[in-house]
Amino acid sequence: MRLRLFSQEDNEREQKRKQSQLSKGKNMDDEAECYKMWRIRRTIMQLCHDRGYLVTQEELDQTISEFKAQYGDKPSERKPQRSDLIVLVAHNDDPTDQMFVFFPDEAKIGIKTIKTYCQRMQEENISRAIIVVQHGMTPSAKQALVDMAPKYILEYFLESELLINITEHELVPEHVVMTPEEKSELLSRYKLKENQLMRIQAGDPVARYYGLKRGQAVKIIRNSETAVWKIYILSPCCVRLYYNL
């Protein structure tokens, strides 16, 4: 039996084949990562808009193609890198009320990153920010968020929490954040006290999405004519009021 020896041409052909496979795999990874980053940023823009911050319709409607054109389509080459996606928005009712959204490049962030962000916020006189983390935060970083309050209000979300907009899920009823005036009027109309309102936990996903503060009230509109407590009817929906702890 005669063994065929690989020639230099065969070796070059094999190397090209392997390089082609690696390139295809890399391109597929880049495509998936781009899509992920686009979805996360889109949800963040929707979140900012739903909290009352000024976001243009173009930003809300940005397609994956437009995202790639603006930021790049090679995450493996840091085009884009997550820190490129930073967002700064101003509130519709008060332009001085601004908020940063930071996208750290580190998979898990520590206290050093938190201090860097707080320094940036101090320089620009901004007191509120959201941090979008890939895999979490160290215990010291989480404690730093607590220690920085109330001077700096920093919230954090995992990327996995922002791949979809939870408020658009078919099983999540519509939530409407009430103004202090609306809340006072409702309590007065029905002769209620705050401690008579049902509670929604601060860690509730929708409460976190809207950035609800303690004492804020939210109407939850369910597509049902039966509820534990009817406030008023929005034919054919009923509205229930929850009080955030």
If helices are DSSP runs of H or I spanning 4 or more residues, what is the number of helices? 7
- Uncertain segments are 227-239
Q: How many angstroms does the end-to-end distance come to?
A: 82 Å
| Basic shape | elongated
Order of helices and strands: HHHEEHEHEEHEHEEE
Give the DSSP E fraction (strand runs of 2 or more residues): 15-25%
Number of E strands: 9
Biggest sheet architecture: 5 strands, mixed
Mean pLDDT: 86
Structural class: alpha/beta
Helical proportion, percent range = 25-40%
Taking all Cα atoms into account, the compactness measure Rg is 24 Å
Produce a short descriptive summary.
The chain is an alpha/beta fold and 245 residues long. It is built from seven helices and nine strands, in the order αααββαβαββαβαβββ.
Give a description of the structure.
- The chain contains 7 helices and 9 strands.
- It is an alpha/beta fold.
- Strands 5, 6, 7, 8 and 9 form a 5-stranded mixed sheet that branches. The protein has a 4-stranded mixed sheet with strand order 1-2-3-4, with helices on both faces.
- A hairpin with a 7-residue loop joins strand 1 (87-90) and strand 2.
- The longest helix is centred in the N-terminal third of the chain and has 43 residues, at 8-50.
- The protein is elongated.
Features:
about 240 residues, alpha/beta, four-stranded mixed β-sheet, 7 helices, about 20% strand, elongated, RNA_pol_Rpb5_N_sf, transcription
Tell me the layout of helices and strands:
Blueprint: H1 8-50, H2 57-60, H3 64-71, E1 87-90, E2 98-102, H4 111-123, E3 128-133, H5 139-148, E4 153-158, E5 174-177, H6 180-189, E6 198-200, H7 205-210, E7 217-222, E8 233-234, E9 237-244
Parallel strand pairs: 2-3, 3-4, 6-9
Antiparallel strand pairs: 1-2, 5-7, 7-9, 8-9
Family: Belongs to the archaeal Rpo5/eukaryotic RPB5 RNA polymerase subunit family.
Region (Disordered): 1-26
Subcellular location: Nucleus
